[in-house]
Model the fold of this input.
Amino acid sequence: MGLSATGATLADLGTSSGATGSRSTPISAAEALERLTSGNRRYASGKAVNCNNNYNRRAEVAGRQAPFAIVLGCSDSRVPPEVIFDQRLGDLFVIRVAGNVLDDFGIGSIEYAVDHFKPPLLLVLGHEHCGAVQAAVEASEAGHSQPAGYVGRIVAAIAPAVQAVAGRSGDTVDNAVRQNVEMVARRLPDASPVIRKASHDKTLRIVGARYGLSDGTVTIIS
Done:
């Protein structure tokens, strides 16, 4: 039984001294999203400012953290959120798993961030040419056969998105990437009472987005 099923939170496990903190000036979800989108514009245009500014920042956040956004993204090596959004060390609480799928450990990590840091924004980030989504499309085209091992579980989690875009015009993989993001974003409040309450109370906004590997830009899709 996973964390989401029991309703427990990682707050029950305790935290080390100085591990949590709050922003000196709270920001809104709209402001948090603007920080991400403006940072991505800098990155995509070759004008990033935070890539080499983490030496002093390391000392600033060693005793506490106060991320302004949670990002649930893919493990793909080409899509590190801190880089593509041009953010500093400690600005983002990041959960990465192939295909940006939901599991108990990811949900528990999000619950931890919501409980302890109160970020106003949760961004679900898919990306162009996602290998996990490609595998799910190929499995569907082969008659829903799944890859062996735990990879098959990831493919199975993405399969509903692939099925939802069947017959849709355009690139099947990219359509499924977008659909998967939207479906994960919609599922998050139902996956956890902690996330559901924050969403209901409007203290947490959930947004879906797609990153383009080719041009480096992030597009908000939900």
